[in-house]
Amino acid sequence: MLLRYAVRALACLGLLFVIVTVTPVLGWWASALAGPWTEARGDVLIVLGSEAQPDGIIGESSYWRTVYAVRAWRQGGFREIVVSGGAQVAELMRDFMVCSGIPAGAIRLETHAASTRENALFVTKILADTPGRKVLLTSDYHMFRAYRAFRRAGLNVEPRPFPDAGKRVQRWDRRWGVFVGLVLETGKAGYYLVRGWI
């Protein structure tokens, strides 16, 4: 009996290994969370921070969100950027943007948010009296939850995801990290749905 369960468990692990390392399932999953792929333009670009390293250096997801924000700015059209993220994340992202040529006066910071829901609530308050089209930029796998959280908070935003997990999944040695991230993000989206936050 115990041997049969062990064999089944190993078979399931083997199947999971094949799915994660060989099939395109992770790419499909990330695309599903990203939603419609757009190069939305507007007046205000909202960029969500992710993490910083303990030594005060920008984290990987925050770095890529900042890179794509700089690219969006360089395409033209935006008159300001709002960067949201606590624990020094927003400041680190702003510094990177300024070093990349974006005028410091065009960047507003929201420095207290510790979650996607707080990003949405705090940025909605900051932009309450700001006219124009708002565009939300974040990682592909994060867009499903972030977009809905902002809409639920009362801010009409246009999504502009970028290929974060979509790029990392192209390297087999990074696929397990992407898999874990997608599982966690899907769980968070479910939690937000149950709480009525999206």
What does this structure look like?
By secondary structure, the chain is α/β, with parallel strands linked by helices. The chain has a single domain (36-165, 176-195), classed as HUPs (Rossmann fold). It is 54% helix and 13% strand. It contains eight helices and five strands, in the order ααβαβαβαβαβαα. The chain has a five-stranded parallel beta sheet, sandwiched between helices.
Observed structural traits:
single chain, 198 residues, alpha/beta, Rossmann fold, 5-stranded parallel sheet, 54% helix
Brief sketch in words of this structure:
With 198 residues, this protein is of the alpha/beta class. Helix content is 54%, strand content 13%.
The strands making up the biggest β-sheet line up spatially as 3-2-1-4-5
Uncertain runs with pLDDT below 50, 5 residues or more? none
Number of domains: 1
CATH class: Alpha Beta
Mean pLDDT: 91
Distance between the termini: 44 Å
- Would you give the CATH topology? Rossmann fold
Structural class: alpha/beta
Major sheet, described briefly? 5 strands, parallel
Helix-residue proportion:
40-55%
Q: Can you lay out the helices and strands and say which pair or pack?
A:
Elements: H1 2-21, H2 25-34, E1 44-48, H3 60-75, E2 80-84, H4 89-99, E3 107-110, H5 116-126, E4 134-139, H6 140-153, E5 157-162, H7 165-168, H8 175-195
Parallel strand pairs: 1-2, 1-4, 2-3, 4-5
